[in-house]
Amino acid sequence: YMSASIRQLREDKIIAYATLTGFVINLISIFYILLTYTYLPPLLPIYNHQPWGDERLGQKPELFLPLGLSFFLFICNIILAKNLYEKIPLIARMITITSFIIALITCIFIFKIIQITL
Predict the structure, then answer these.
(1) Which of 10, 26, 75, 118 is the most exposed place for a label (fewest CB within 10 A)?
(2) What are 44-47's contacts with CB under 8 Å, separation 24+?
(3) Are 20 and 99 in contact, with CB atoms under 8 Å apart?
């Protein structure tokens, strides 16, 4: 049953492309962080919703938090899309596109933080 539902997701081009590009974008974010990690200062402006000052700063390892959340949501959304695909394919497509958008926004966020600090 599981391989049949995964095969259905692979055959749906929207789901396949959104899943693949979302995964690749998350990998690019990981590699970019790892590539620049040693050059980053110890404190980074991660928490932009906080008032100006020290509250906005986070330590270098905290840069992996948005990426971890993005991967977690990516996996949860793929599982949810797999379970919903037979009943409501449109919702499954929307969920995978949402995962792609979350990965893209996270990647932009990480790139901007690193560009600002380097």
Answers:
(1) 118
(2) 44/113, 44/117, 45/113, 45/116, 45/117, 46/113
(3) no
Task: Output the six-digit token pair for 112.
Answer: 């901007």
CA–CA distance, 100 with 83 (Å, rounded to integer): 18
pLDDT of residue 105: 96
Q: Which residues pair with 58 in a beta bridge?
A: 44
Integer Cα distance of 15 and 84 in angstroms? 12
Average confidence score pLDDT of the chain? 88
Residues 79-98: tens digit of each pLDDT:
999 888 889 989 999 999 99
- Which residues are CB-contacts of 63 (< 8 A; sequence separation ≥ 6)? 33, 40, 44, 46, 110, 113, 114
H or E stretch at 59: strand 57-59
